[in-house]
Amino acid sequence: MRIIFHGENAATFSHGFADRLSRPAEIRLLPDVLQTEAEREAYARAEAIVGVKFDASLPLPAELKLFHVPGAGYDAVDLDRLPASAALCNCFGHEQAIAEYVMGALLARAIPLADADSRLRRGDWAYWAGAPERVHDEIAGRTIGLLGFGHIGKAIAARAKAFEMRVHVANRSPVAPSPLVDRAFGLDRLADFLGSVDVVVVSVPLTGDTKGLIGADALAAMRPDAVLVNVGRGPTVDEAALYEALRKRRIGGAVIDTWYRYPQADDASPLPSKLPFHELSNVLMTPHMSGWTDGTIRRRQAVIAANIRRRFSGKPLENVVKRGS
């Protein structure tokens, strides 16, 4: 087996990978930008590739049997360009981490631990119990809205229920009420859904149908004190509309982990948007970190290795996006 880990992200999953395989393999790590003829030749000879991108800038691997994305999103993979022989799979395993991130962000907004600590170190007892003007918030009894109810949405719902929150869901396919779901909406009732919740968590994948799904009209339907949390893909929320809603304080705030601009070879440290979100005090900004934990890496590595074993032994694959011949 000739296996390529293409790029910095994919290389994370290569450590100890050979020990998870059932047969000897030639494993090679290649950089994000293939700079030498030897690197391009190795890519073109690959039988299995682990990577986040596949497009016309890369050599065509004629003998490819499996392209495995080491994550959930495959929007940077040109499905039409993949050889007919190649199956495409993705993997999850990040839902536990992302659910903890969401709950941590909500708790941080409600319980000002860092500010209380900073103030008390200066002798300021700003949050001292005993007077109504010094109270802080809580999340119990609030309503969280989950836009998307896949792996991530279900994991968040379970944790939200543990904090005694109400859970509303908006999803493309119908979702039945359950111990995790108090109320469900179709996407044709998006405005009703958005107006019913205190927190909106966006976790839908980026597709032609979801790009800009949360635009100016959707943001206008949110409660004026509601918070938007984006842990899906940046462009599912219209960039300009979100900035304006936050700048003019039409909504209560945002927690943004997935963005509109990312580091590139020619700019390793860009601001994450062309708009100055970083100047807004009602935004918590993080660098697409919500699902990136040791646990996520271990779980995803196990899935990738298992699928490579299955592909080369003729067994059915897991998390198939496109079947190969």
Structure, explained:
The chain is an alpha/beta fold and 325 residues long. Helix content is 27%, strand content 16%. It has 9 helices and 13 strands. The chain has a 7-stranded parallel beta sheet. It has a 6-stranded mixed beta sheet with strand order 2-1-3-4-5-13, with helices on both faces. Helix 3 (95-110) crosses helix 5. The longest helix has 20 residues, at 294-313. The model has no long low-confidence stretch (mean pLDDT 97).
| Low-confidence runs of at least 5 consecutive residues | none
The structural class is alpha/beta
What level of helicity do the residues show? 25-40%
Distance between the termini: 17 Å
Oligomer: single chain
**What's the number of helices?**
9
Tell me the number of strands: 13
Q: Sheet with the most strands?
A: 7 strands, parallel
Global morphology: elongated
Radius of gyration: 22 Å
How much of the residues is beta strand, in percent?
A: 15-25%
Q: What do the pLDDT scores average to? A: 97
Strand order of the largest sheet: 8-7-6-9-10-11-12
Written as H for each helix and E for each strand, in order along the chain, the element string is EHEHEEEHHEHEEHEHEHEEHE
Topology:
Blueprint: E1 2-6, H1 8-11, E2 26-30, H2 37-44, E3 48-51, E4 66-68, E5 87-89, H3 95-110, H4 113-120, E6 143-147, H5 151-162, E7 166-171, E8 183-186, H6 190-194, E9 199-202, H7 216-221, E10 227-230, H8 239-247, E11 253-256, E12 283-285, H9 294-313, E13 320-322
Parallel strand pairs: 1-2, 1-3, 3-4, 4-5, 6-7, 6-9, 7-8, 9-10, 10-11, 11-12
Antiparallel strand pairs: 5-13
